[in-house]
Fold this protein.
Amino acid sequence: MESWRLIIHPPYPGAWNMAVDEAILESIISGETRATLRLYDWQPFTLSLGLAQPFSDVDKQALDSRNWDIVRRPTGGRAILHADELTYSICALQNNPLVSGNVLESYRKLSTGLLRGLQIAGVDVDSKPKDKAMLDSSGNPVCFQFPSDYEITHHGKKLIGSAQARRGLGILQHGALPLNGDITRIVDVLAFPKEIDRQIAREKLRQRATTLSEIIQKAVNWQEIADFIIKGFSEALNISLEPNKLSLAELKRAYAHYRDKYNNPQWTERI
């Protein structure tokens, strides 16, 4: 049985969260540590943009008026509002059989851990190739409006949105599991040509995405779900997850990435 690190962090600002994910990835690539599952949260609420997503998708005035933060991820995809959620990240070497293959194949492998964790929690979820009828060519900026291949859904509604980056010999995949609150809040801080477009996006999102609390019809506790996700990855991937913390080298890398990159408007607003 392979042994992975398990790191659980309290809520942190978005720039620090992304800096830590990148620092762990670099630690994996350099051979300083082993594969790592990290679970974390965000404070304040943070809008994250995909690596190549235009900053013009953001309604900065609306974002500032709510005192919400913004960060650009090192991974692709579209905007996610990190609010009332559990976020996971996995960093490993690309040749690890548990994550190896092309992007689609590694998505499929890692989705088994998420799927199993939610099934243990008694949630009716699925993970399969996307319905080609759901393909979106509209340029909609919202990640959760359309499920990708092997993302976790409930009766066709997207529940977990994930994104992946590959660098050198390493792979980083992270994703968001909305627990509580209104899944459509994100449209209030994105830019639309007309107000009617915002309302249309809100309704489409409500029809195509959901939260865990909406599924089980009660408020969800972060730690309780984290425990289910940990057990799910352990069972589905047949790994032992050993509680750990960031090394001093990782903390130094994370601070440098926070200062020079993720907390820097030149990175966030570069496109």
